[in-house]
């Protein structure tokens, strides 16, 4: 590129991957790059910095230019619920050079999920990815987050929770406390075990990472499609748990008589149409007037919209917003 237009950076850091997008102030996305996990708690500061830099350099390579500092960067990241977490990410992003230190904003991943999913409009976003959480913004600008407490305390309906429930169903079936389920064989296969009692030391003594447990969600969706009742029950319970979070947001914020638009995003929901449909049914039962919609754009493009709003100091004009959303 010869003109070197002014640009912003949008960063989407989730449990599975980190994406960086570079876009002009007119909303044209010039390049997008991807690297590993963007979850600070899972990978630590040094690895997260490497992933952000790899994705940033890949985005500029896609734009056909050498990396340079943007006018503004917005980073929508998993596991940045505290000020100290956000400050850590701000520092590492500034060190890499995405934007000047005073022009970097870091917030939870749900902010970009809502902005991208609903094109900047008010409503509710549910993330069903490695973890789970819910976030809403009404027309008055009031916001609320529900859920997002991590895999030990919550993450209901997310992949780690679904994978953990698969193990629970497997051991209960093995004991005779639960009905027979194909998940018993799938859990053994997943961990390379020959007998169910080997699962305890594998989980308790050796540990199983959050991502390793989340990988089992795919087994649950596959067995549910094949008709396994335990797998189907896990997904129905997950959908109800997600809808419960959204119902609190719908009750506490003001979406008027029409009710909120609701978008469900995240790798688990995107990769399992049956689960997404179950989530939509549960949401429509629990929230009066809820309109479940498919995501208009990615979380990464939502991060670009947030960066543009920060740079402009006002809502993103319709023409610019449409440019960001174009080509999704």
What amount of the residues lies in strands? 15-25%
Radius of gyration: 20 Å
CATH topology name of the largest domain: Nucleotidyltransferase, domain 5
State the separation between the terminal residues, measured CA to CA. Answer: 22 Å
The tally of helices reads: 14
Instruction: Tell me roughly what share of residues is in helical segments.
Output: 40-55%
Order of helices and strands, N to C? EEEHEHEHEEEHHHHHHHEHHEHH
How many separate structural domains?
2
Strand order of the largest sheet: 3-2-1-4-5
CATH superfamily of the largest domain: ATPase, nucleotide binding domain
The stretches of 5 or more residues where confidence is low (pLDDT under 50) are: none
CATH class of the largest domain: Alpha Beta
Mean pLDDT: 94
The second-level CATH architecture of the largest domain is 2-Layer Sandwich
Oligomeric state as shown? single chain
Could you say which structural class the secondary elements and strand pairing correspond to?
A: alpha/beta
Main beta sheet strand tally, sense and closure: 5 strands, mixed
* Total DSSP E strands: 10
What form results from the Cα inertia axes? globular
